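Hi support team,

I'm opening this ticket because the web form for multi-chain structure prediction keeps timing out on my end. I have pasted the exact lines I submitted so you can reproduce it. The total is 657 residues across two entries, so I didn't expect it to be a heavy job. Is there a limit I'm missing, or should I split the entries? Thanks in advance, R.K.
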Amino acid sequence: MKNEARQQNGYEKLVEIYLNHHKEGELLLEYIELAKKAINFENGFISYIEDQYYEVIQSSTLNNKLKSGAVFKTCDTLCEEVVINGKPIYHCKLIDTPLYNLPGRAYLDTESVIGLPLVVEGEIWGTLTLCSTSESDEDLYLNNKNFLDLISMMVAKIIQNHKLRNKLKASENLLKMGEEFLEIATYKRFLNNDQVESTSSFFDIFNIPPIEEGKMTTAVANMAMSKVIDADKLLVQERYERSKTEDVPAFEYRIAIANNKVKWLRHKLKYVGESGYVLGVIQDISDLKQTELKLKSKNEELEQFAYATAHDLQEPLRTITGFIDVLEKKTSENSRALGGEERQYLNFIKSAATRMKNQIDGLLDHSRIGRRKEKLSININLLLSDIVEDLQQKIKETSAIIDIADMPIIKGYKMEMRLLFLNLLTNALKFSRRGIDPHIQVRCKEEDVQWVFSVKDNGLGIADEHKERIFKIFIRLKPREDYEGTGIGLAQVKKIVDLHNGDVQVDSKLGSGSTFRFTIKK
Amino acid sequence: MRKLNCVLLIDDYHPTNVLHTIAIEDTKRVAHTLAFTDAEKALTYLLNIEDEQYIKPNVIFLDINMPGMNGWDFIQEYKKLTADKKSDILLFMLSTSTHPDDLDKADKEEEVKGYIYKPLTTETMLEVIEKYFEH
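Hello R.K., no limit was hit. The queue was backed up. Here is the completed structure from your submission:
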């Protein structure tokens, strides 16, 4: 065969091999064979270079002497120069060169060698080495040099793909491990046809038979949807519709699994409209929910206990106050009047009993918070004018000014909201500075998901170190003689705000007033 | 002004009975106030009308939460009394409980005339007399 014809044949073969072999290992082997044949060499192999080492990844040698996986020190091989310079080498007669003494040469009885660098993005990733056990014909090499360069370029591409794929696989594995660990699944849903691509944890979470990764059909998406329990179906449908046009913040729902059990899921959706899909993350939060439920029932138990205790304390207390009244009445009616000291003691007993009664009443109110489970529409304007009416006497006594801006109508627990404002306003009136008439401002600001209310006064203010403590039950900052109170008011405020999924905090400086800010979820 | 002959108190806590007795006596419109700390004993008293100590009460004030026979148990037995033993007696629950269940229950019991919160005061007693016995 003529040289040119042979080369033409070689190029066609190069393409044909590429099209017919999808496995990288086979492809590399075919290319080694092709290169060997072009120049009549017996041995050929491909290696990776990693630091000072040289690892054979595919080979075709006489008697299979050099197997893939073999590792050498790069300096022991014939290709060190290729690695260093990034240029091909050719020695038709090795015995005339200093390379002849290298261990790598003796290994395959090499007398003649061609070393080709495998360059990926300007970096040398490895070599394609061709060896002959006899001296070779330089013309044959020169005639085929371009062809060999082309093969080495193809090989470089293949190993680059291979490495990239390995990298991708590694990060996919990491993602998978992460998903399994966190009990989450991620998926991509295309907007045009509802097709879903997901990782395998998706199937685990929904307990449905897995379909080959990345090939989930609409049928599987429907199957997942059908697992949602009836009570939560509407919610999920609504969120699904929303995700077609916007991001959907995390929402929670239940799916039915075997044995009449349910699984709690938290789901979040990100709208990526410009790419035509929605990204979803699903997390199994059943454990969390269970803990939450346990905690809730424990809490209820505790509250029930507080309620029952407070309730039971009422009766003996009533007996005490009842007898104090009897004693007072009897001793004033007849001649057995009490002496000054005895009267004082009786007054002490009476005031202690009154305090205890207030404390118990407060505690009972506190444990009643949130007992009525239904939220109503509340006109805060009306609520506040009612409260101001009730506080009229106190307002007159203190010459207070109460300035209330226009208030919204909100959804909430009515009795509790009243108690909340009553407590804040009572406090604002009570903790005023001597000689300064109370000036109280009530404001409200609307935000996306919540209302932000504020009650601002010009009173005593609160030192920084107390700002957390004041919301705890039975904590008082002021002596009882100066400021009457049970230490329950702000604890109630906190509890009521919590009940409305809000937050409460205080901005204050000692001596220059306080602003209580709280949020109520819409 | 009408004067009642007898009021019967049933409460397991003795001091409460004493306090209520004082409140009743202070109206000066009740001749006898009897008190039991045990609902069973009160029931036995009501059964033995032949007893020479027996005075028929005009009003019974009954506590709810008591050990042994409680207020509701007492009412079940009281229902079984023959007409001659309970006619003209007005029975009131006297309790600290503000529990809606208790209020509902009292409302549904035909035998229960009303629900009064403790402590019973002289004023309340006078109201009862005026409302139920003045006409």
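A quick check on our side: The mean pLDDT of chain B is 91. Let us know if the file doesn't open in your viewer.
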